[in-house]
Amino acid sequence: MSETTRRAVITGTGSALPPRRVSNAELAEQIDTSDEWIVERTGIRFRHIAGPDETTSTLAADAARAAIAAAGIDAGEIDLIVLATATPDQTFPASATKVQAALGIDDCVAFDVAAVCSGFLYALQVADSMIRAGSAERALVIGAETFSRILDWEDRGTCVLFGDGAGAIVLEAQDSATEGGAGILATRLHADGRHNQLLYVDGGPSTTGTVGKLRMKGKEVFRHAVVNLASVMQEGLGAAGLEAADIDWVVPHQANARILDATAKKLGLAPEKVVVTVDRHANTSAASVPLALDTAVRDGRIKRGDLLVLEAMGGGFTWGAAVVRY
Predict the structure, then answer these.
(1) What percent of the chain has a predicted confidence (pLDDT) above 70?
(2) pLDDT value, residue 186
(3) Which of 8, 143, 144, 261 could in theory staple to 128 by disulfide, Cβ–Cβ 3.0 to 4.6 A?
(4) Which residues are catalytic?
């Protein structure tokens, strides 16, 4: 009889996007840019923008409902909600508690994680650790953002890059085969606060008393991203006792098509193994990895038994990777 171990297994995925879909051409009517300029530099063609009645928590709740339905469970069976976001509904309480209430869950652990674009990876490791420790059985891990609310719409170098949306997964504790079994196999996280001024928001409750706007030095971020993402993916694979050749799919943070290409090339991976949604969704920060995952699960690319590597890097800098047998 093969050995088993307690693991956090993805049993459902879901996502939500605001109905309003904005093309590069529409943006070009408002700011000095063009479809060609944006596509050539980023690969982005569309992004979704939240309406007045849509918030980070409403998008998160919609994505959570879809993930719960896919997992075939009742919302009341969830005992942990970890929501990754840099754009919460309020300074406090945590938007995770608003999702909890929206789902009709009377009592469960619920809190937010702030690690910007890497937030979903951070939230995933937290939930995985709690499940392995036995303090949770079924967790909702969500990445949700309304980045349109913190963009400077006169800064053409940043406002064209981002969009709104949410993605969610259900993680369940299962006894999984030690060799070849499903679940989260390894996660690795990093942060380096020396690079704050390369990607940040110029406001906050404790400093300016305002929300602030996003600021970024794109070339420097690009350079760090390619190096850090390739490195942390190798680190995660090594921790799981696997190699790049074992990967079925890379599900990356959707920041820029050129970063995706460069990272794949650095690892010697075929571009066909990389899930790309940046053209449709733009950069949705903490939502981008679970959004891309749900897209590839629902269109049939990702199948049970596939080996996935999830990766992201964001402001902080923070970055991380997770190796998952789906």
Answers:
(1) 99
(2) 98
(3) 8
(4) 117, 253, 283
Per residue in 114-155, pLDDT tens? 999 999 999 999 999 999 999 999 999 999 999 999 999 999
pLDDT grade for 1, boundaries at 50, 70 and 90 = low
pTM, two decimals, is 0.97
